[in-house]
């Protein structure tokens, strides 16, 4: 777990909830809809006097019905990828056989052969989707070559002209590639965004836990100052009164020294803030120092130039700024400059480095999850290249009301964060004073 550079740790995605590819209940429900549509089509064609192989068609529909009944009587808690592929392959074969028995490619419902591979593209990996896509192309060809012709109520043959049949076959094959590829790409992007948001939530939760722990420590340091001062005073008086009892005086001196040690420890624990209110608000320079502190000794010089009001010491904002500073340090040659200033109604923080900057082709996509946007930099120790740092920073800062812009400054990258002042400024309440001074 990387706790020093502010980046999301490796275990975050490993612990993200992994759902089954597709629930059996969903496949069963889709199959019920398909069975209902198939039966309705058979009934309508029958009433219209369309001639087709009614017995085999009803047998295929009964097979789908039997599959659903069997799955209902043998419920499984989870569907494995192999099981999902098996069920979708069954559906593909059943639909293709129905199309072949009802006119083949001249059947206007032949487009439904694409349904199983489209579902696979949204739920299964690329290899399984490609395999099912190849099977789909084979079944489309099978339905076209071995089609049983349809006849209208007057006994006329219903079929497409050969050129139209070949065009329909080609359109379906192209549809397999297009629909499956498009659905798989969209699903993959949604999954990547979902995982990245989960990583953001985990990072923010960790930062909040640390913040709450700091509040408890600072409050304890403040509240225990008075009793420690009392203990130290009484121990000093006892040591003076026991001057004729060296054995007891030594115990009193030891008690006083222990009280001094406790006071020193509490002062160091409460240095960041003497009370819980101080932890919720701090000067802009102090917040930027807090965000930059894990990266101060990683190589490049980190310079902070900030004059501004006290702002809310929000854990999400600190973590986001830390990620932005980490990205600058990772790719800087020798220097990172963090500037903060207040303008009319706005608070602006700018982070710039002297590294290679962002590739121009990727500037518009900076902040997308899993985007590796910078090459050729130092990539110093602690750099993990997960592509989540900027996404997490952008998400957290936008939640706080900020707007981000990413540019190149020749040389180096520049990140500008702008808040409306009323969204980030502290409420102006003063913190409590220092702990009571302990007289010796």
TrEMBL record:
<dbReference type="InterPro" id="IPR003594">
    <property type="entry name" value="HATPase_dom"/>
</dbReference>
<keyword id="KW-0812">Transmembrane</keyword>
<feature type="transmembrane region" description="Helical">
    <location>
        <begin position="130"/>
        <end position="151"/>
    </location>
</feature>
<feature type="transmembrane region" description="Helical">
    <location>
        <begin position="57"/>
        <end position="74"/>
    </location>
</feature>
<keyword id="KW-0418">Kinase</keyword>
<keyword id="KW-1133">Transmembrane helix</keyword>
<keyword id="KW-0472">Membrane</keyword>
<keyword id="KW-0547">Nucleotide-binding</keyword>
<dbReference type="Pfam" id="PF00512">
    <property type="entry name" value="HisKA"/>
</dbReference>
<feature type="domain" description="Histidine kinase">
    <location>
        <begin position="219"/>
        <end position="423"/>
    </location>
</feature>
<keyword id="KW-0067">ATP-binding</keyword>
<dbReference type="GO" id="GO:0016301">
    <property type="term" value="F:kinase activity"/>
</dbReference>
<protein>
    <recommendedName>
        <fullName>histidine kinase</fullName>
        <ecNumber>2.7.13.3</ecNumber>
    </recommendedName>
</protein>
<feature type="transmembrane region" description="Helical">
    <location>
        <begin position="32"/>
        <end position="51"/>
    </location>
</feature>
<feature type="transmembrane region" description="Helical">
    <location>
        <begin position="163"/>
        <end position="183"/>
    </location>
</feature>
<feature type="transmembrane region" description="Helical">
    <location>
        <begin position="95"/>
        <end position="124"/>
    </location>
</feature>
<dbReference type="Pfam" id="PF02518">
    <property type="entry name" value="HATPase_c"/>
</dbReference>
<dbReference type="InterPro" id="IPR047770">
    <property type="entry name" value="RegB"/>
</dbReference>
<dbReference type="InterPro" id="IPR005467">
    <property type="entry name" value="His_kinase_dom"/>
</dbReference>
<keyword id="KW-0808">Transferase</keyword>
<dbReference type="InterPro" id="IPR003661">
    <property type="entry name" value="HisK_dim/P_dom"/>
</dbReference>
<dbReference type="InterPro" id="IPR050980">
    <property type="entry name" value="2C_sensor_his_kinase"/>
</dbReference>
